[in-house]
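Colleagues,

For the teaching module next term, I've prepared a clean inverse folding example: a structure given as tokens, and then the sequence designed for it. I'd like students to try predicting residues themselves before seeing the answer, so please don't circulate the second half yet.
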């Protein structure tokens, strides 16, 4: 039978998204799993479980892969942005900024995390299909680029910016009408989408903006979806976007930036085979150059907005195995001390993951088990019919590829506190988010006076 050794499946160390485990994953002399120079079972002991672990080197290599590929393959200027919805924290904002990338934010929370993490305001791009006036005001005052999605954004911004001298720096988001093969919930580029203007509205917007003095249309944006393995949808996207660019310029708008969104997939299980970061960027860059040359347009500053492919592979989650239940002839449940509150992706999208026991990663599998979480919900399953060695209560399990859309989508379902997050590099580990305590969860509860008498 096979072993569960995902860190041996590395195909392309230059492109973190083509690996299942972090790039620094290795075995020590006793064949125990080490990441960032830290033994994973020691980390579980020191910080407790569940525990989010991020490998700094993998994040930095992902950022560099984007930057280097854009520098190499795009003839104009470029700026990759990190889509912080994948995982937002001060530490990540700081790493991203130190790698020379910008950041995409979609809420006041993400915006202040980027600002306080040291991201320069001109490198922050603010998105959202229903931004509040307060959020727009903060983004405007901060000097960030604002992506307008609808007329409501324009109305609110007019109130904010027309009283000031500083012009709002705006990009226009539209739905390009492109289908891609990914989960229904994470498709965003087709016409039936809550995001962005309909392409048929573009001309009217370009006309409307000719009269607007408080803001300047500096670029166009579109995003077609997430966890995409094909290259063709992005090639088609470029064509549609450059057409829109030509149209906008014909109305006199400067539109010097083109943001093609994110979406590059990552390898969660061995059958996943996403393109490398370099390949994705090369294909898109060449397409933009060709499309612009064909129309004699000046090359725009090219932006992309990867989230998952920057952080997913860098992350893993450590759980301790607790109860086991064998239902003869049916299945064995192995329960861990986290689940759908720290990783809602399996229950939401039926997402697949890879995992192994951290101190026995090479042990032979002895059959399939279902790794369940601890929440009061039958669907709270992290790994379905998964090959694992016969494991003991108390052993530590590592689930790989959890750096993106795990912490950022986590909840307190069943009033379970959120795990701590740490970053590892060169044999050192540092806390970047402290573990929540049950007491923290009571912080916003208010007991009206009239109920107090019921408490003995
Ligand atoms: N830009 C925009 C405007 C986006 O909406 C997104 C993702 C990205 C960039 C980054 O896409 P990425 O490179 O990460 O694929 N919760 C889902 C993913 C939702 C993605 C939402 N938008 C999941 O866990 O799979």
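(Answer key — instructors only)
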């Amino acid at each position: 039978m096979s072993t569960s050794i995902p860190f041996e499946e590395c195909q392309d160390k230059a492109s973190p998204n083509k690996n299942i485990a972090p790039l620094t994953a290795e075995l020590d002399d006793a064949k125990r799993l080490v990441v960032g120079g830290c033994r994973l079972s020691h980390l579980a002991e020191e910080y407790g479980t569940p525990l989010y672990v991020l490998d700094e080197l993998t994040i930095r290599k992902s950022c560099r892969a984007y930057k280097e590929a854009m520098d190499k393959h795009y003839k104009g200027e470029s700026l990759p942005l990190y889509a912080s919805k994948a995982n937002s924290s001060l530490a990540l904002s700081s790493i991203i900024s130190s790698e020379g990338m910008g950041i995409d934010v979609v809420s006041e929370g993400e915006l202040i995390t980027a600002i306080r993490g040291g991201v320069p305001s001109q490198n922050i791009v603010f998105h959202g299909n229903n931004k509040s006036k307060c959020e727009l005001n903060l983004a405007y005052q901060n000097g960030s680029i604002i992506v307008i999605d609808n007329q409501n954004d324009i109305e609110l911004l007019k109130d904010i910016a027309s009283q000031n001298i500083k012009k709002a720096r705006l990009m226009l988001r539209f739905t390009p009408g492109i289908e891609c093969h990914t989960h229904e919930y994470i498709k965003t580029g087709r016409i039936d989408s809550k995001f962005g203007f309909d392409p048929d509205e573009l001309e009217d917007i370009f006309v409307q903006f000719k009269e607007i003095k408080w803001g300047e249309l500096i670029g166009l944006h579109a995003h077609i979806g997430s966890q995409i393995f094909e290259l063709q949808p992005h090639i088609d996207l470029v064509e549609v976007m450059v057409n829109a660019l030509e149209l906008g310029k014909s109305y006199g708008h400067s539109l010097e930036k083109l943001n093609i969104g994110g979406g590059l997939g990552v390898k969660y299980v061995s059958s996943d085979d996403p393109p490398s970061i370099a390949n994705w960027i090369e294909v898109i860059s060449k397409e933009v150059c060709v499309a612009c040359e064909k129309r004699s347009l000046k090359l725009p500053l090219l932006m992309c907005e990867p989230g998952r492919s920057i952080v997913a592979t860098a992350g893993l989650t450590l759980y301790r195995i607790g109860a086991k239940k064998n239902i003869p002839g049916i299945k064995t449940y192995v329960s861990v001390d986290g689940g759908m509150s720290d990783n809602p992706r399996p229950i939401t999208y039926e997402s697949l993951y890879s995992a192994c026991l951290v101190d026995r990663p090479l042990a032979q599998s002895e059959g399939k088990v279902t790794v369940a979480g601890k929440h009061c919900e039958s669907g709270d399953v992290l790994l379905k019919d998964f090959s694992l060695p016969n494991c003991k209560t108390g052993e530590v399990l590592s689930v790989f590829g959890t750096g993106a859309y795990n912490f950022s989508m986590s909840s307190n379902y069943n009033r379970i506190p959120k795990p701590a997050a740490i970053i590892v590099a060169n044999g050192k580990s540092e806390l970047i988010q402290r573990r929540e305590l049950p007491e923290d969860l009571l912080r916003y509860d208010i007991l009206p006076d009239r109920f107090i008498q019921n408490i003995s």
